[in-house]
Amino acid sequence: MSKPTVLLACDFSDRFKQLLAERYTVIGPMPRSAPDALTEGASAARALVTKGGLPTDRALIEALPELGLVSYFGTGFEGIDLQAALEHGLTVTHSPGANASSVADFAMGMILASTRQILAADRFVREGRWTGK
């Protein structure tokens, strides 16, 4: 029995690709998310894995006749033509909360940098204005 085909719209970590390859035939990453960038075997893809604002438009959806799933690696559905997906009976998924802890870390870092004026202090030192006294 052959494994279902998964098409990667972009590159992902080696570990993620390794895990996918255990259960699926993995094709890609595509050089860009467009129908003219499809590689050999992509037309057999049952799933498309994409991320962060890459276009999954009507033209790409229609170029993948076996497609049944668009899996968006991120929060939201930016770039996916949801009307075209609906018309073609595709399931569209995403991963809400997948980067929540990273966003929280970044927000706390920005709060600390702002409160402690870290960027201004860095600039002060780099401009040679700190005398060390």
What shape does the CA trace take? Answer: elongated
Q: How many helices does DSSP assign?
A: 5
Whole-angstrom Rg: 21 Å
The topology string of helices and strands comes to EHEEHEHEHH
Structural class: alpha/beta
Gap from first CA to last CA: 74 Å
Describe the main β-sheet briefly.
5 strands, parallel
The overall pLDDT average reads 92
Number of strands: 5
The percentage of residues in β strands lies in 15-25%
Helix content: 25-40%
Strand line-up in the sheet with most strands: 2-1-3-4-5
Low-confidence parts:
none
Give a short synopsis of this structure:
This protein has 133 residues and is α/β, with parallel strands linked by helices. It has helices at residues 14-21, 58-62, 82-87, 100-115, 118-126; strands at 5-8, 25-27, 45-51, 69-73, 91-94.
Q: What would the keywords be for this entry?
A:
single chain; 133 residues; five-stranded parallel beta sheet
How are the elements arranged and paired?
Blueprint: E1 5-8, H1 14-21, E2 25-27, E3 45-51, H2 58-62, E4 69-73, H3 82-87, E5 91-94, H4 100-115, H5 118-126
Parallel strand pairs: 1-2, 1-3, 3-4, 4-5
Tell me what the structure shows.
With 133 residues, the protein is of the alpha/beta class. It contains five helices and five strands, in the order βαββαβαβαα. A five-stranded parallel β-sheet has the order 2-1-3-4-5. Strand 3, helix 2 and strand 4 form a beta-alpha-beta unit. The longest helix is centred in the last third of the chain and has 16 residues, at 100-115.
